[in-house]
């Protein structure tokens, strides 16, 4: 099911949690809503679910305006971070719950419900555990039961709010791989909320980067990492270094010194680059910094350096080859090999 969010605004007591958000989610896509705390991810997910209603704007499921539809009418599956399984019900009964509470006219027969629950258990690789109770399962198993329960109603859209947030790192990793495989097998349109960029980049077909109630960028993992379209996205995703610069006469200046980068733009800007996208140089205009600390990676070294005049130095990290001199207090001269500039 395709979901189109059109110029949505959401206010809570006049506080705008979302400003004019538009997004087209393709049928069968796995989408991550990624952003810092308070950026509006959960609000957007709840609006898609129908748990909240927009102050302005519309939400379409396919070509149908679903803005005024209830949660049940939208037929969405929902999984929260704190898998609220029913403690007094077995795994099989938990999964079957959404079907058993349907109005009689649309409720499948008991045998059919049992068959579907067994099929879903198999799908989430939990066959054999149907008679267990939630407290007899691991966190990862419980979360898979929650997913199976959400899937049981054959939702048009699956919505997951930090689904692996409460689990330890190893289980999170396993469940991520599992969710990707599960999604590819079932082909449901799925939207999940996360503040973990690694999870978003690894799992999603497209990542929606949010900040302060707005969408900053929508794109594949490669798009948002390699061609971030704003200072926020550049610094939020992956490691980055940033310096205030001035552009004039076709060149980039840092603290009034040219740094060996050419540009057509003019005026003040913030220069961004990745720690690994630098080349050390002994000649020509370049940036230069004093090493304040360094640490070893597998194939390189990260040097922490102070760039710029004393009293107005900027602390950044760059990656240097293992054979480079990066002793404390030594000077490193370098130029970014890939960089972006955002007017400031
Ligand atoms: P987190 O990662 O911390 O869950 P989030 O990106 O999901 O954050 P939201 O939960 O969508 O952010 O909240 C967005 C903003 O709207 C926040 O400033 C929050 O305080 C506010 N907000 C959310 N729900 C309500 C509500 N029911 N009443 C008032 N304000 C709310």
From TrEMBL:
A Pfam match is ABC_tran
Q: What is this protein called?
A: Sulfate/molybdate ABC transporter ATP-binding protein
Q: GO:BP terms for this protein?
A: quaternary ammonium group transport
Q: A cellular component term (GO) from this record? A: ATP-binding cassette (ABC) transporter complex
Residues of the ABC transporter domain: 3-237
Keywords from UniProt, A to Z, are: ATP-binding, Cell membrane, Membrane, Nucleotide-binding, Sulfate transport, Translocase, Transport
GO MF annotation terms? ABC-type sulfate transporter activity; ATP binding; ATP hydrolysis activity
Q: Which Gene3D superfamilies match?
A: P-loop containing nucleotide triphosphate hydrolases
- Please report which protein family the annotation says this sequence is part of: Belongs to the ABC transporter superfamily.
């Amino acid at each position: 099911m395709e979901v189109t969010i059109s110029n949505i605004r959401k206010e809570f007591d006049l506080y705008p949690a979302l400003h004019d958000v538009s997004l087209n989610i393709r049928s069968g896509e796995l989408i991550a809503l990624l952003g810092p705390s308070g950026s509006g991810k959960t609000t957007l997910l709840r609006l898609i679910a129908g748990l909240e209603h927009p102050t302005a704007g519309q939400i379409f499921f396919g070509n149908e305006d679903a803005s005024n539809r209830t949660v049940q009418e939208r037929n969405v599956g929902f999984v929260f971070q704190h898998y609220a399984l029913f403690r007094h019900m077995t795994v099989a009964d938990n999964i079957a719950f959404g079907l058993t509470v349907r109005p009689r006219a649309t409720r499948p027969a008991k045998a059919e419900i049992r068959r579907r629950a067994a099929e879903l258990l198999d799908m989430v690789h939990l066959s054999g555990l149907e008679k267990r109770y939630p407290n007899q399962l691991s966190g990862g198993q419980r979360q898979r039961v929650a997913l199976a329960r959400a899937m049981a109603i054959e939702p048009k859209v699956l919505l997951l709010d930090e689904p692996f947030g409460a689990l330890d790192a190893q289980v999170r990793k396993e469940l991520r791989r599992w969710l990707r495989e599960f999604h590819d097998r079932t082909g449901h349109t799925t939207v999940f909320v996360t503040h973990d960029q690694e999870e978003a980049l690894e799992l999603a077909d497209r990542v929606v980067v949010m900040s302060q109630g707005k969408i900053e960028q929508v794109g594949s993992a490669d798009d948002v990492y390699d061609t971030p379209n704003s200072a926020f996205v550049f610094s939020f995703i992956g490691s980055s270094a940033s310096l205030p610069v001035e552009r004039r006469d076709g060149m980039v200046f840092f603290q009034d010194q040219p740094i060996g980068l050419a540009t057509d733009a003019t005026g003040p800007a913030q220069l961004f680059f990745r720690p690994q996208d630098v080349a050390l140089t002994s000649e020509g205009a370049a940036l230069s910094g004093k090493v304040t600390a360094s640490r070893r990676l597998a194939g390189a070294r990260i040097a922490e350096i102070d760039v710029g005049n004393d009293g107005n130095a900027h602390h950044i990290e760059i990656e240097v080859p293992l054979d480079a001199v990066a002793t404390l207090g030594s000077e490193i001269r370098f130029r970014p090999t890939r960089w972006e500039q955002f007017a400031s």
